[in-house]
Amino acid sequence: MADSLEDLKARVRALKADFEAALGPAGDATGLQSVRDRFLGRKAGAVTALLKSLGGLADDARREAGRELNELKDDLEAKLEAAKTSLEAKAGALRLERESLDVTLPGRVPARGRRHPLVSTREALEDVFLSMGYEVYDGPEVEDDFHCFEALNMPPDHPARDMQDTFYVDVPGPSDLLLRTHTSSGQIRYMLENAHPPEVRIICPGKVYRRDNDITHSPMFQQIEGLVVGRGISVSDLKGTIEAFLHRLFGEKYPVRFRCSYFPYTEPSVEADLSCIVCDGKGCRVCKQTGWIEILGSGMVDPAVFEKVNEHLGRVVYDPEEVTGFAFGLGIDRVAMIRHGIDDIRLFYGGDLRFLEQFRG
Amino acid sequence: MRILLSWLREHVEVTVPVETLAADLTEVGLAVDGIENIPGDAVLDIDVTTNRVDCMNVRGVAREVAVLYKTSLKPLDVTFAETGALASTALTVAIDAPDLCPRFCARVLDVKMGPSPPWLRERLEALGQRSISNIVDLTNYVMLELGQPTHAFDLAKIPGAALRVRWAREGESLQTLDGVERKLKASHGVVSGPEIGLALAGIMGGASSEIGDGTRTVALEAAYWDPLSIRRGARALGMHTEASHRFERGADPEGPVTALARFAHLLQKIGAGTTRPGLIDVHPAPRRTARLALRPERQRAVLGVDVPDAQRRQILAGLGFKGETPAIEVPSWRGDVSREIDLVEEVGRHYGINKIPSTLPPARRPGGLRPAQVLERRLRDVLVGAGLSEVVSYSFVSRADAGAVRLSNPLADNQPVLRTSLVDPGLTDVLRLNLSHGRRDVRIFEIGRVYQVREGQLPREDSRLAFLLSGTPARHWSEKARPADFFDGSGLVELLASAMGWSRPVFEKGNPEPILHSGRSAAVRTGGQQVGWVGALQPEFSKDLGLRQEAIVGELVLSELIAKAPAAERFATLPTQPGTSRDLSVVCDRGLPARDIESTVRGAAGRLLRDVMVSDRFEGGSLPAGKVSLTVTLRYQEKERTLTSEEVQESVSAVVTALKGRGAEIRGE
User: Fold this and answer.
1) pLDDT band at residue A163, thresholds of 50, 70 and 90?
2) N or C: which end of chain A has fewer CB within 10 A?
3) Which of B358, B359, B302, B342 has the alpha carbon at shortest distance from A325?
4) Quick check: B385 and A140 CB within 8 A?
5) What's the mean pLDDT in A230-242?
6) At A269, phi and psi to the nearest 5?
7) Spatial distance between the Cα atoms of B659 and B601, rounded to a whole number of angstroms
8) By three-state DSSP, how is residue B98 classified?
9) Are the Cβ atoms of A142 and B369 closer than 8 angstroms?
């Protein structure tokens, strides 16, 4: 029973001190609940007991005491709430700590394969020509002598046939079958199959075969042949096309040079060299100290080729007096070897994953 | 062709540094592959193209140099004194085969055999030629300088001092200078005495008339041979000589006369002998000089640039062409020039190919990939995305199925046929190689052609896709390794079908290929067509490979599958209400294919069923032997409304009845 306001205030101070002392060690929700029950419990709480003890005070004093006690109650409530929030935060932090991972362990990398470097290179080459309006034509790999040699101005016994040691095929029936030694046979097939008003713009990528096997020659390798035929096609167009293509593929900063050459099915014939991309033209092992890399052979379609095609068609479709054209051919393997610094062509065909997985694919 | 710079300078003035000379020659088509510096001199290694036999000698290269630098060739000294009796009294020549030999020239020389003077020996040695004797060295010297091969016979060894040029008799034998006894055919030419052959025409001299220390008088031959005859003859004998190399490419028909005169001049100069009066020149088939037109507009159309008339004249004259269009006379040494286009090339070469401006031809039609090409690229992307790496293998293999295309001249005896499958040989070899490197996970594919003989036509070339999966791809530290099995293979085919827009594939158990495990392989059908197969390699085969785990292989015939682009996907309105699903545990015979359960469910469930799928499977445990338990998940949905449990239950009941009808038990029923 509170005898006076002063007495009550003293009790409140004492109770506050008790409360602080009790709250301090309360480390979890249960602890907090028992502190609440002890001080704010509706039946046995210390504050409730004090409230019940105000009966003996005068009205004024009782009002003031009531206010005092209500403030006390609010104060304790607030402190309990704050303690609860802080405990929860601590528990949350602990949980995160408990659940933490070693983020430096290897992640789960989804399986990823690689496209073959020759395929990536071929598609890059194709894409440059596709952007210039070319079609991609596919011819057979097992060819006959006519499409591979004769129509390309290489009659039997032509010395140029020596340059391309040929695999012959032994099948019943046609006796002159062979594995094509170049994709140039695609030129002839396309012109024969598309004997409409002559306007040709194609590339023929594909496998070709020659009887050769060392670190720079594979008995099977891949080429891209190009053919453009129309009215007014000239050496200028050939040069512009090849420069545009090489610049797109390797970058504008590498100069291209042309030099005259000889192919039986083009006249004039020119070869294109690219300034060595390994040494920037200064001279290195790759360019054999010349500063230049031989990259492709090309030329204006020899009128004899148009004449052979016309003869085969039995009518004049490609009149060499009316139309001209240029053709070019390059080795995909060679371009891939230059691009990636590969020194043995045979690696392309072995299926060695230690090799294949070096490429982004 | 090796050209000595000092020798070249005897024929033409060279004022530029040798590196510039090399670059300029390269641009006009005489590719200088290397410059070898030797004390006080240099050797240019020139790759002369097969059409330019006229440049396979010093004088020919000098002519190109003269045009390059707008100078003239220095005159060739061919002066000499003739002494003694007329040559024609000492030697007679007859040509029985003008088709083989259109021209045969000879001179008779009185010689003092001995070593060559140092300058001659050094010059030949600088070019990698061995000095033999003064007379032999001079034949080589003249050939290197002028391109005309000559041959020295010991006149005393020519029976009757009479030479006859004729085709060989079938089976005739002749010992050539290299000591080899050669059996000739009627297609070989010989320079013969009255009876026996003395030299293999245009290819190599014979041993019986070889000159030596005792030789006093030489019959020196310089002839023009039919290129094709020499080429065929040399090939048939497997021979390739400096002489045949030049003759089969077409030497200069006028060359013999000059070459003999030059030889006589040099003989006198080195004091090795004298020349008897008179040139023996048998010329049954004189050459007709070609006369060609060169229209300026044609020249412009091809080159894309106007070459001034004066420059054109200067170029052609420098190269030895005479006269004006339409009758430009082709010099005798340029057998490769016979058409207007050939003249255009000559003008273009020396105008400067790099001076011609570059243009791009206008495109008059859109280009682009064909559907099959687009689809092949997509297929590759899907496979790579699924973790397979691409390989490219040789088309020729060690063995193949019946109907394979056989090579007549394979490079290696173990690869005589073109492949009929990409898998074995093929991917299995790639697997073997990678296993030998200690690799345990191999996931690879190849897209390529196979070849099949077709009667009377080119072989059939079909595009195929093959894949091989073996081992576990890069196991993560948190997971257990799971080696590839059959379902990785069949699942890959399902992935391809859905990504490529093929009809859903069906797997039919069987043994489509002898290399496969008969219980773990299937034919793949899509759209009612068999398109390929998939399966595990036979256990014995796997054991031979040293495989610890199964290898799954598959092959699909692509030609049909990617021939046409699939139609664009049609959009279906999205459902507004969620669906519901029910699981059924079905116990059935182990031999009953899951596909039959699925189709039974589909057949009985009615129109509300959207999807059915096997979501669990087990055998053993409490199940009787030979039985298997499959959990089948049925998914129901109606687009516009929520389904009632009654209508779903009604469908499930129908399914249960149907399954029981097929002998299955439903667990928990």
Assistant:
1) low
2) N
3) B302
4) no
5) 96
6) -110, 140
7) 7
8) coil
9) no
Beta strands in chain A (DSSP E): 135-136, 142-144, 169-170, 177-179, 200-209, 220-230, 256-263, 266-275, 292-301, 324-331
- Which 216-255 residues of chain A touch chain B by CB within 8 A? 219-220, 228, 230, 232-237, 239-241, 243-244
Question: For residue A290, what are its two tokens?
Answer: 């010349």
Task: Give, in order, the Cα–Cα distances in Å from B87 to each of A44, A209, B200, B221.
Answer: 153, 55, 23, 13
ipTM of the complex: 0.90
pLDDT at A195: 84
B2-68 belongs to which CATH class? alpha beta
Q: Which pair of tokens denotes residue A67?
A: 């206010």
Residue % of chain B over a pLDDT of 70: 100
pLDDT at B669 over 70: no
Please, what is the Cα angle at B14 between B8 and B16, to 5 degrees? 130
**Same-fold call for B2-68 versus B291-355:** yes
Residues of chain A with Cβ-Cβ distance to B410 below 8 Å are 167
CA–CA gap between residue B516 and residue B351 (Å, rounded): 66
Predicted pLDDT of residue A196 = 78
Q: How many CB atoms lie within 10 A of CB B162?
A: 13
Domain A117-356 class in CATH: alpha beta
Mean pLDDT estimate for chain B = 94
List the domain boundaries for chain A.
5-98, 117-356
Closest CA to B87 of B205, B195, B218, B206: B218
* B422 contacts in chain A (CB < 8 Å): none
Question: What are the residue boundaries of the structural domains of chain B, listed by start?
Answer: 2-68, 87-282, 291-355, 371-561, 580-666
Q: What is the pTM of this model?
A: 0.88
The tokens 């506050």 sit on which residue?
A16
Q: Do the Cβ atoms of B120 and B142 come closer than 8 Å?
A: no
* 8 Å CB contact of B473 and A106: no
pLDDT-derived band at B31 (thresholds 50, 70, 90) equals: very high
Output DSSP code: residue B168: P
Could you read off the pLDDT of B350-390 as tens digits, one per residue? Answer: 999 999 999 999 888 888 999 999 999 999 999 999 999 99
pLDDT in tens, B153-167: 999 999 999 999 999
Tell me whether strands B551-557 and B417-418 are parallel, antiparallel or unpaired.
unpaired
Q: What residue has token string 């194609």?
A: A202
CA atoms within 13 A on the CB side of B439: 22
Structure tokens at B474: 């890069």
Q: Domain B371-561 - what CATH class?
A: alpha beta
Which of these CATH numbers, 3.30.70.100, 3.40.50.740, 3.20.20.140, 3.30.56.10, describes B291-355? 3.30.56.10
pLDDT of residue B667: 86
Q: Are B621 and B557 in contact (CB under 8 A)?
A: no
Summarised one tens digit per residue, pLDDT across range A14-66 is 888 888 888 888 878 888 888 888 888 888 788 777 777 777 777 787 788 78
* B185-to-A62, A157, A338, B104, B233 alpha-carbon distances in Å: 145, 18, 48, 22, 9
Q: Can you give the pLDDT at residue A38?
A: 80
- Which residue in A126, A157, A351 is closest to B393 by CB distance? A351
Is the domain defined by B87-282 classed in CATH 3.40.50.720? no
Do B458 and A177 lie within an 8 Å CB cutoff?
yes
Question: For residue range B315-340, what is the model confidence (pLDDT) as tens digits?
Answer: 999 999 999 989 999 999 999 999 99
Taking the CA of residue B262 and the nearest CA in chain A, the distance in Å comes to 29
Whether residue B405 is predicted with pLDDT greater than 60 in this model: the reply is: yes
The topology (CATH level 3) of B580-666 is Alpha-Beta Plaits (3.30.70)
